[in-house]
Design brief:
17% strand; 400 residues; Aspartate Aminotransferase, domain 2; 15 strands; globular; 37% helix; 2 domains; four-stranded mixed beta sheet; alpha/beta; seven-stranded mixed beta sheet; Aspartate Aminotransferase, domain 1
Length: 400
C-alpha cells in the first residue's frame, strides 16, 4: 500500500501537495503558487501565516497546552466575554472543536430548555431543505440530505424538514412538540442561498408567538464573512436564541462555539454537557487573536468594499458568459455563481490555472476567499475565471 493510502477514502484530493501559505496564496513542494479562493472552506479568514494568531499560538504553546474544563480557562472566559459583548442576545458560551459539535450543543440546549420549563414534549427541530449542519448522526439527520444519510440509517426522530423559504409549510408544521427552528442565514452547501431579511424577521416572530427557540447555524457564514461579524446582524430584530459558530472563528485552528441567551444557557449545568478539548488554551488563544482582528471596524469595512467589487465583477462575467453563468449567489465573501455548465469541471479548470475554489449544491461554484484579499487578488481571480468560462462554453449544459 502506497504512503498515505491508510487514510479513510472520504476525500478525493487533487495531486497538489501544499507545504506553506502566505496571505491569499498557497505553495506546493515544487514551488507553484496558487491563489486560494476557498480558504479551507471559509476557515482561513485571515489568510495563511498571519502574524497575530501565529504569535498567540506560539506564546500559549510556551505556557500550557491543555487543562480541560475541570480547571479555570482564562482564555475561554475572555473570548466568551467578547462574543457576549458583541451579540445582544448572548449571555452564555460553550466552546467546542468543530461546527458539528457546536450544533449538537445547540440542539441539546434547546431540548433541555423546554424540559426544564415544563414542556418535555417539545423535542422536534424544524430545518430546511438544502441545509448542511455537520456530519455527526444528529447533524446529518438535522440536514436531512439523502446523500449524507444513505448507509447510516435508520433516520433519527425529532427532525422536520421543510422546503426552503416556504412560510406556509412552516406555519403548518408547527405543533405542540416543536422545540426549535434551525436555519443557516446563508446556506453554504445548499448553494449559497441567503435567507431573505423578511424571512429571518418572520422566523423570529413565529418563534416568539409559539414558545419556540430560534437557532442560527453561522458556522460557515459567520466570523465576518458577509461583512458583519455574523450574517444575521444585517437584519435588525432577527436575533436568535442560540447560535452555532466555528470555521473562521479560529482562522484555521479547530474551535467552535455554541452561543446562547441567558434563559437557554441556564439549563446547561454540570453533568449536562462537556468536551475534553473544548475551550482549551491553545484554541482560545488563537480564537482571541482572530476575534481582535476581524472585529476591527476597518477590517469589516474592507470586507464590504471587496465584496462589492467582486459582485460587480461577477455581474460582468454573467453578462459576458450567458451560456455559462445562470445567476449570482451568496452574500459578502461567501459568494459564487450557479452555472449552466458543470461546476465541478469549472473547478478543475481553475486548479489547472493555479486558483483554488469550491462547489456546492444546485451546481454552484463556491468561493470563500480569505477576508484579507485586496483588489489585486480580485483582478487575478476574475481573469482566471474568465479564462475558465471561455473553456466551459464548450462543455455540455449541466442537467440535475
Amino acid at each position: 500500500m502506497a504512503h498515505g493510502d491508510h487514510l479513510y477514502d472520504t476525500y478525493n484530493p487533487p495531486k497538489q501537495n501544499f507545504i506553506r501559505g502566505e496571505g491569499a496564496y498557497l505553495y506546493t513542494e515544487n514551488g507553484n503558487k496558487y491563489l486560494d479562493f476557498i480558504a479551507g472552506i471559509s476557515v482561513n479568514c485571515l489568510g495563511h501565516n498571519h502574524p497575530s494568531p501565529k504569535k498567540a499560538l506560539i506564546d500559549q504553546a510556551n505556557k500550557v497546552w491543555h487543562l480541560s474544563g475541570m480547571f479555570q480557562l482564562p482564555g475561554a472566559k475572555a473570548l466568551a466575554e467578547k462574543y457576549c459583548q458583541a451579540l445582544p442576545f448572548a449571555e452564555k458560551v460553550f466552546f467546542t472543536n468543530s461546527g458539528a459539535e457546536a450544533l449538537e450543543c445547540a440542539m441539546k440546549s434547546a431540548r433541555k430548555y423546554h424540559y426544564d420549563n415544563g414542556s418535555p414534549e417539545k423535542v422536534d427541530i424544524i430545518t430546511f431543505q438544502g441545509a448542511f449542519h455537520g456530519r455527526t448522526f444528529a447533524t446529518i439527520n438535522a440536514g436531512g440530505n439523502p446523500k449524507y444519510l444513505k448507509g447510516f440509517g435508520p433516520t433519527l426522530p425529532g427532525f422536520i424538514h421543510l422546503p426552503f423559504a416556504d412560510h406556509d409549510a412552516l406555519e403548518k408544521a408547527i405543533s405542540k412538540t416543536t422545540a426549535a427552528i434551525l436555519i443557516e442565514p446563508v446556506q453554504g452547501e445548499g448553494g449559497l442561498r441567503p435567507v431573505p431579511d423578511q424571512c429571518l424577521l418572520g422566523l423570529r416572530k413565529v418563534c416568539d408567538d409559539n414558545d419556540i427557540l430560534l437557532i442560527y447555524d453561522e458556522v460557515q457564514c459567520g466570523a465576518g464573512r458577509t461583512g458583519r461579524l455574523f450574517a444575521h446582524q444585517w437584519v435588525e430584530g432577527a436575533e436568535p436564541d442560540i447560535m452555532a459558530v466555528a470555521k473562521g472563528v479560529g482562522g484555521g485552528f479547530p474551535i467552535g462555539a455554541c452561543i446562547a441567551s441567558g434563559k437557554v444557557g441556564a439549563g446547561m449545568v454540570p453533568g449536562t454537557h462537556g468536551s475534553t478539548y473544548g475551550g482549551n488554551p491553545l484554541a482560545t488563544a488563537v480564537g482571541n487573536a482572530v476575534w481582535d482582528e476581524i472585529s476591527k471596524p476597518a477590517f469589516l469595512k474592507n470586507v464590504n468594499i471587496i465584496s462589492d467589487l467582486i459582485k460587480k465583477e461577477f455581474e460582468q462575467l454573467k453578462h459576458d458568459f450567458p451560456d455559462v453563468v445562470q445567476e449570482l449567489r451568496g452574500k459578502g465573501l461567501l459568494c459564487g455563481m450557479k452555472l449552466k455548465k458543470p461546476a465541478l469541471e469549472v473547478r478543475k479548470m481553475m486548479l489547472e490555472k493555479f486558483m483554488l475554489g469550491g462547489s456546492a449544491g444546485d451546481n454552484v461554484l463556491r468561493l470563500a476567499p480569505p477576508l484579507i484579499i485586496n483588489e489585486t487578488h480580485v483582478t487575478e481571480a476574475v481573469n482566471i475565471l474568465r479564462a475558465c468560462f471561455e473553456e466551459a462554453k464548450k462543455l455540455d449544459d449541466f442537467e440535475g
